[in-house]
Design brief:
two-stranded antiparallel ribbon; 8 helices; globular; binds iron/sulfur cluster
Length: 294
């Protein structure tokens, strides 16, 4: 992304400070998000990952996205939903790390999208509906993990992010089959019921406590971070070094989204604004599609 998300958020906060201060409740503490009863998720254990990137290729194949193993992508993008990055700072401080949507329990992206293009749905999966999306990209600004990507290079761009392969439902189990997990040779990334994954992460820590960070009291990232996520992480290295931000236990992005809503209350009804934006973008999209047909 070319813009600086922090600066943009600062901008939102500055513009809306007056309105927000008067409209936000005195103690706006977000409610603790609940784990959906059918929550499905992933567990990525960086200590098992060998960086083969089979998961990256499988993700592209399962989602009809271009690219191949001989030219691995460097970051998430309009055609990459899953990436393996390398953190390398000496022999004792190195790790691979997988990045994709975290499927937050209280997703800031969905909170920011007033059109409902992003929604937390069956299995707690945060899904995206391109038919509803008006391309405002507020979801990009709100996401604390910088996951949603925009297809800048197509005339009909959409937002791209992992949807936990919810289009690949097993006939046997009735549950999603994430392609990245199917191909991992080391069970470094596995999928399943969220509660079982949490138990598996705890089991791995109990069996090998010295293997995980931080020493003495290993942590499962995502258990409570940012309000909790349905994708959980184990690692031997400080999670922040791996690009997983320290967020605290409150739902991430709550404040930004609340301020954003408040700012708009002060200027123009959000529905009217989005209606206008929607009309403009729909018109642009249609003329681009017409051009393509011609
Ligand atoms: S990681 Fe970002 S895109 Fe994914 S659910 Fe959370 S806020 Fe949304
Ligand atoms: S769950 Fe599916 S879309 Fe998400 S990273 Fe894995 S393969 Fe890609
Ligand atoms: S397939 Fe498994 S071992 Fe290979 S890079 Fe992906 S998570 Fe790591």
């Amino acid at each position: 992304m070319s813009f600086d998300r922090r600066k943009l958020l600062k901008g939102f906060a500055a513009v809306g400070a007056g309105a927000a201060a008067s409209a936000l409740p005195a103690e706006a503490s977000p409610p603790k998000p609940e784990v959906p009863p059918d929550a499905f998720g992933m567990l990525y254990d960086a200590t098992r990952c060998i960086g083969c990137r089979a998961c990256v290729t499988a993700c592209k194949n399962a989602n009809g996205l271009p690219g191949n193993l001989y030219d691995p992508p460097e970051d998430l993008s309009g055609d990459t939903k899953n990436i393996i990055k390398v953190y390398d700072h000496g022999k004792t401080d190195e790790s691979y790390v997988k990045a994709q949507c975290m499927h937050c329990l209280d997703p800031a992206c969905a909170r920011a999208c007033m059109i409902g293009a992003l929604q937390k749905r069956e299995f707690g999966i945060v899904t995206y509906d391109p038919e509803r999306c008006i391309g405002c990209r507020y979801c990009q600004v709100a996401c604390p993990y910088e996951i949603p990507k925009f297809q800048w290079d197509t005339p009909t761009p959409v937002i791209v992010k992992c949807e936990l392969c919810h289009h690949r439902i097993s006939k046997e189990t009735g549950k999603p089959m994430p392609a990245c997990c199917e191909v991992c040779p080391r069970e470094a990334v596995i999928s399943g019921d969220y509660r079982e994954l949490l138990a598996e992460a705890e089991r791995r820590i109990a069996e090998n406590p010295e293997r995980y960070w931080p020493a003495g009291s290993p942590k499962i990232y995502g258990k409570t971070d940012g309000g909790g996520t349905q994708v959980l992480y184990l690692a031997a290295v400080d999670f922040e070094k791996l690009g997983l931000p320290e967020l605290g236990e409150a739902p991430a992005g709550y404040e930004a989204a609340e301020i954003q809503h408040t700012v708009y209350q002060g200027f123009i009804a959000p529905v009217a604004l989005y209606g206008l934006l929607g009309a403009v973008l729909w018109k642009n999209r249609r003329s681009a599609e017409k051009k393509e047909e011609e």
